C-alpha cells in the first residue's frame, strides 16, 4: 500500500477511518496524516455446479466495491446428464440470488461465485400394445427416455398371435397410419410417451370349387366357406344330382382327367395354400352303334352315324344322305335284315336302343326303264342315230351326235331338242341329262342356211352388160363362174376373165370355173389387158400361179393351187403350189376356254388356234404358219417357240420357229391345234408375303415379265404404296421402251434417283409424264389412282385433256380432276382399272404395288388386242 503525507483537515476523517472515496486516513506517530491511494478489488467466479460436460465461462475482470457486474451466459456449452442449464445463482443449491445471462448487479466488497443451476429433464416411456392380439405376450420396455434419446424397437419376444392374422411389426397408430417399425429399428424419443401398436396382416383364405367336368344336367354343389391354410375341408356329395349323358357319377378328383387325388362324399383333406377345384368323375356307360349297310348299292355313300348309344337311348334313323344308288333300283328305306324280313324304318323314324349293336340295311325297289329315241324331224337324207339302251329314272343319258350324217335341204343340223319345234330343252353331242320317269324323244333341230350372192362388176367397162347371177348360195355351195355374156368392153383393153379383187390381186376365174362359196357375198371384177386394137371380148386363160387369198379364216383351194389364209393379223397360213393333189377346204378357229389344255408350267405367248382341213393325209410339201405373239411374256433367257397339241398324248410338242420382231414362222405338214409358248427357265418366284394375297398370280406374272422385282429379304410387300418414280420404272419395264429418253428439266431433277432416271426420261420423251405446274416431278410422292390412270392412258396413246368434262360413270365422278377424266373414262371402258366398293374410283387414293402390277398387266393385255 502506498501512503502519502497529508495535513490535518484535508479530509473529513481522522484516526484511521474512511472519509470518502474509499480513502483511508491514518494519523502517524507524529500526528501526521497519511492517505491510502489504491482501493481494494474483487472477482467473479463461475462454477459448473456438477456439470458433466462443456466449459464454465471465465470473467477475468477485477471489480471495485460497488462496480456494476454483467452476468455472462453459458458460453462454453455446459451440460449435465439428465438436466438442462437454468442460469446462475450465488448459492450452489439455488438459495441465493439467481441471474440470467446479461443481468447486472452491484459488486459487494467481497469476491462472488456464481453457481450453474440445473433443471432435471423430463423422461418418457415406450409402451407396446398387442392391438387385438388373441395370444402371446406383448414386450415390455422398462426404460425411461429423455427427449431425443435413441430408442431401439423390441421384437415380438412374447410370440404374439391374432386369430386369422400374422404379426407384421409395430406402428405408432393402431390403424397403421403412423410410423411403422420392425424389431431392432431405432428412433429418436419425442417429448412425449410413445405407444407402439402391433400390426397384423390378414392370413389368405382359399376356396373349394366343384366342377361338373362335362356334366349335361343337374347342378354342381357350392362350398362358400373361406379356408385358411391347414384348415380341414369336408368333401360334399353330388347334392345337385349331376348327370352326364352316357356316364355315371363316380366321385371327385383334383384333376379333370382323374390323375389327381380322388375323394368321395364326407372325405376330408387339409387345405393347402392354394384354391382347390374338385372335378366330377364319370364312368362311361356301355354304348352301342348303329351301322348303315348299302346292301348291294352301286354308287353313293352309306350314311354314317358316329354316335355311341347307351341302352334305352332313342335313335333317329338317318335318310339316304349319301345319295345311295343301285343300278335298276330305287332306294326304299332301311330294314334290320338284309332281305327285308326284319323291322323297316324310314328317314326320321325312331327306335329304342337295345343292349347290342344294330345294322340297318338299305332296301331297294326295282326301277322301271325308259328309252331315248332320235327323230330326224324333216330330214331329207342320212340316218337318225339309234340308242338301244334302256334307262332307269335318274340315269345319266349321253346325247349322241349326228352319226348318220343327217341332212335337210337348205338347212344345217343344229343339235337336238325335246320338242320338234325347238321349244323344249336343247342338247348338243356329248351333252348329258338325267332320265325322267318317261320315254324321251330327241328331235333334230335345223338352222336355215344363210345364203350369199355373187355379183359381177364391169370394173371400168365402157360398154356391154355385166352378167347377173340371181342364185342364192349357201356356205360351201359350188359356184360356176359365168362368162362375158353381155359383151363387156373397155376402151383400149381386152376382157381377161374375173378376179375377186379389182386390181387383180385376188383369185382369178375364167368362164366355167368353179369355187366353193365362203360365208360372205362375193364380187367378181372384170379383168382387162391392154390391147392395141381395141377390145374383142376375148377370154384369155389366167396364169397358173395365181394365189387364192382369204382373210376370214376360211379357204377353198383347188388342187395344186397356191393359197394364203389368215385370221386377222394373228395367224397366217401359206400353202405352196402342189402341196396336195386334192381340193383343200381349210378353217382357222381361235380356241376359247383353253385352261383344260394347259398345265401350270405352260405359258402362252399367243392364243391357241385350231387349223382343220377336209382330209386326213399330211401335205406333200411343207405349209408355212406365221403367228403374232406377245414378247412381254418373255424374260431373261426365255424364248418363243411354236407348239402343236398331241391329242393322243394330251401334251404340247415343240415345233420351233424363226422369230422376227413379234412374229414367228414355222413349216408344218399337218394341221391341229397350234400356239406360241414361252420356252426356258422361269425365274423362281417364292415371296414370303403373297401366298394368300389376292394378286398372287399377277405378282408372279409381273416378276416373270421383268416389270418389277421383290426385296432382298424375300418379300414383295404387295400392300406398300408406290411412288411416282417407282411407277415410272414399272411402266417403262412393261412397255420395254428403248433409248435414253429426254433430258430431265424438272426443278427437282436432282432428287430423282439414278435407278429411276432413265425410266423417267423415257416416259417424258414418250409424252407420258408431264410433271406439275411448279416444274417439279416429285419422285418420292406416292402416286394417286388419278395420276396412274393418266400415265397408263398416255402409254396407250389415249391421253387427252381436250374433253375434261367426260363423264366416267363412277359414283365419285365429281371428285376426279378435270385433267384425268378422259384417261379414267378410257381405262374403265378398256377394263384396265376398275372402281372400288360402291362404284367409287377414289382418284386421290394411293396405289399399292399389287394394284400397280395388276393394272400394268391389264394395260399390256389391252395393248396386244
TrEMBL record:
Name the GO cellular-component terms: cell envelope
- Top-level taxonomic group: Bacteria
Q: Which InterPro entries match?
A: Cell_Envelope_Struct_Comp, InlB-like_B-rpt, Listeria/Bacterioides_rpt_sf, SLH_dom
Coiled-coil intervals, chain numbering: none
Q: Which residues form the SLH domain?
A: 682-745, 746-806, 807-865
- Where would you find this protein in the cell? Cell envelope
Q: What residue range is the signal peptide?
A: none
Q: Where is this region: Disordered?
A: 531-551
Name of the protein this chain belongs to: SLH domain-containing protein
Name the source organism.
Paenibacillus sacheonensis
Amino acid at each position: 500500500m502506498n501512503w502519502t503525507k497529508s495535513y490535518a483537515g484535508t479530509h473529513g476523517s481522522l484516526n484511521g477511518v474512511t472519509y470518502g472515496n474509499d480513502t483511508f486516513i491514518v494519523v502517524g506517530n507524529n500526528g501526521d496524516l497519511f492517505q491510502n491511494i489504491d482501493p481494494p478489488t474483487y472477482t467473479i467466479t463461475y462454477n459448473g455446479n456438477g456439470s458433466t460436460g462443456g466449459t464454465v465461462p471465465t470473467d477475468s475482470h477485477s471489480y471495485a466495491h460497488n462496480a456494476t457486474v454483467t452476468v455472462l451466459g453459458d458460453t462454453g456449452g455446459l451440460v449435465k446428464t439428465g438436466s438442462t442449464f437454468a442460469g446462475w445463482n450465488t448459492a450452489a443449491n439455488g438459495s441465493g440470488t439467481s441471474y440470467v445471462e446479461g443481468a447486472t448487479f452491484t459488486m459487494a466488497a467481497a469476491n462472488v461465485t456464481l453457481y450453474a443451476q440445473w433443471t432435471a429433464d423430463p423422461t418418457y416411456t415406450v409402451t407396446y400394445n398387442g392391438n387385438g392380439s388373441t395370444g402371446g405376450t406383448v414386450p415390455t420396455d422398462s426404460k425411461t427416455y429423455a427427449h431425443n434419446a435413441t430408442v431401439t424397437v423390441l421384437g415380438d419376444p412374447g410370440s404374439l398371435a391374432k386369430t386369422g392374422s400374422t404379426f407384421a411389426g409395430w406402428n405408432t397408430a393402431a390403424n397403421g397410419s403412423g410410423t411403422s417399425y420392425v424389431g431392432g429399428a431405432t428412433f429418436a424419443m419425442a417429448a412425449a410417451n410413445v405407444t407402439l401398436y402391433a400390426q397384423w396382416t390378414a392370413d389368405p383364405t382359399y376356396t373349394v370349387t366343384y366342377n361338373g367336368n362335362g356334366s349335361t344336367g343337374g347342378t354342381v354343389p357350392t362350398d362358400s366357406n373361406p379356408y385358411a391354410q391347414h384348415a380341414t375341408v369336408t368333401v360334399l356329395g353330388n347334392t345337385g344330382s349331376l348327370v352326364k349323358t352316357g356316364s355315371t357319377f363316380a366321385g371327385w378328383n383334383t384333376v379333370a382327367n382323374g390323375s389327381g387325388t380322388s375323394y368321395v362324399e364326407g372325405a376330408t383333406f387339409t387345405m393347402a395354400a392354394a384354391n382347390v377345384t374338385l372335378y366330377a368323375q364319370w364312368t362311361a356307360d356301355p354304348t352301342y352303334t348303329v351301322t348303315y349297310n348299302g346292301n348291294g348299292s352301286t354308287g353313293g355313300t352309306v350314311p354314317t352315324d358316329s354316335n355311341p348309344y347307351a341302352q334305352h337311348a332313342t335313335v333317329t334313323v338317318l335318310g339316304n344322305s349319301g345319295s345311295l344308288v343301285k343300278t335298276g333300283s330305287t332306294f326304299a328305306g332301311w330294314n334290320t335284315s338284309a332281305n327285308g324280313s326284319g323291322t323297316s324304318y324310314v328317314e326320321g323314324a325312331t327306335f329304342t336302343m337295345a343292349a347290342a349293336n344294330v345294322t340297318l340295311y338299305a332296301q331297294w325297289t326295282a326301277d322301271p326303264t325308259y328309252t331315248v329315241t332320235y327323230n330326224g324331224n324333216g330330214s331329207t337324207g342320212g340316218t337318225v342315230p339309234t340308242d338301244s339302251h334302256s334307262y332307269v329314272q335318274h340315269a345319266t343319258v349321253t346325247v349322241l351326235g349326228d352319226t348318220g350324217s343327217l341332212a335337210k335341204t337348205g338347212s344345217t343340223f343344229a343339235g337336238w331338242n325335246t320338242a320338234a319345234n325347238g321349244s323344249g330343252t336343247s342338247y348338243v353331242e356329248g351333252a348329258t341329262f338325267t332320265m325322267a320317269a318317261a320315254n324321251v324323244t330327241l328331235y333334230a333341230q335345223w338352222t336355215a342356211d344363210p345364203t350369199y350372192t355373187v355379183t359381177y362388176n364391169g370394173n371400168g367397162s365402157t360398154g356391154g352388160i355385166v352378167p347377173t347371177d340371181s342364185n342364192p348360195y349357201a356356205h360351201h355351195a359350188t359356184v360356176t363362174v359365168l362368162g362375158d355374156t353381155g359383151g363387156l368392153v373397155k376402151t383400149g383393153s381386152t376382157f381377161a376373165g374375173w378376179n375377186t379383187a379389182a386390181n387383180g390381186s385376188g383369185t382369178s376365174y375364167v368362164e366355167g370355173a368353179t369355187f366353193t362359196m365362203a360365208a360372205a357375198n362375193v364380187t367378181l371384177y372384170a379383168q382387162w389387158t391392154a390391147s392395141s386394137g381395141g377390145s374383142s371380148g376375148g377370154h384369155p386363160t389366167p396364169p397358173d400361179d395365181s394365189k387364192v387369198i382369204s382373210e376370214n379364216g376360211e379357204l377353198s383351194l383347188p388342187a395344186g393351187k397356191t393359197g394364203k389364209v389368215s385370221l386377222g393379223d394373228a395367224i397366217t397360213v401359206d400353202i405352196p403350189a402342189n402341196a396336195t393333189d386334192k381340193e383343200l377346204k381349210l378353217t382357222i378357229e381361235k380356241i376359247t376356254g383353253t385352261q383344260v389344255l394347259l398345265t401350270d408350267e405352260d405359258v402362252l405367248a399367243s392364243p391357241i388356234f385350231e387349223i382343220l382341213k377336209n382330209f386326213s393325209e399330211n401335205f406333200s410339201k411343207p405349209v408355212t404358219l406365221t403367228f403374232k405373239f406377245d414378247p412381254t411374256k418373255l424374260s431373261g433367257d426365255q424364248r418363243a417357240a411354236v407348239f402343236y397339241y398331241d391329242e393322243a398324248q394330251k401334251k404340247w410338242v415343240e415345233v420351233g420357229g424363226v422369230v422376227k420382231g413379234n412374229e414367228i414362222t414355222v413349216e408344218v405338214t399337218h394341221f391341229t391345234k397350234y400356239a406360241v409358248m414361252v420356252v426356258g427357265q422361269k425365274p423362281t418366284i417364292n415371296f414370303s408375303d403373297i401366298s394368300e394375297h389376292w394378286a398372287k398370280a399377277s405378282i408372279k406374272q409381273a416378276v416373270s415379265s421383268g416389270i418389277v422385282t421383290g426385296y432382298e429379304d424375300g418379300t414383295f410387300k404387295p400392300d406398300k404404296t408406290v411412288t411416282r418414280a417407282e411407277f415410272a420404272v414399272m411402266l417403262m419395264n412393261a412397255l420395254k421402251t428403248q433409248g435414253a429418253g429426254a433430258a430431265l428439266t424438272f426443278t427437282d431433277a436432282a432428287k430423282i434417283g439414278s435407278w429411276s432416271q432413265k425410266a423417267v426420261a423415257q416416259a417424258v420423251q414418250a409424252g407420258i409424264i408431264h410433271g406439275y405446274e411448279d416444274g417439279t416431278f416429285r419422285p418420292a410422292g406416292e402416286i394417286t389412282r388419278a395420276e396412274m390412270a393418266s400415265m397408263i392412258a398416255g402409254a396407250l396413246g389415249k391421253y387427252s385433256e381436250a374433253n375434261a368434262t367426260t363423264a366416267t360413270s363412277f359414283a365419285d365422278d365429281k371428285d376426279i380432276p378435270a385433267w384425268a377424266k378422259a384417261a379414267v373414262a378410257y381405262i374403265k371402258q378398256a377394263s384396265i382399272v376398275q372402281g372400288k366398293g360402291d362404284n367409287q374410283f377414289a382418284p386421290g387414293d394411293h396405289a399399292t404395288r399389287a394394284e400397280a402390277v395388276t393394272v400394268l398387266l391389264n394395260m399390256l393385255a389391252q395393248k396386244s388386242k
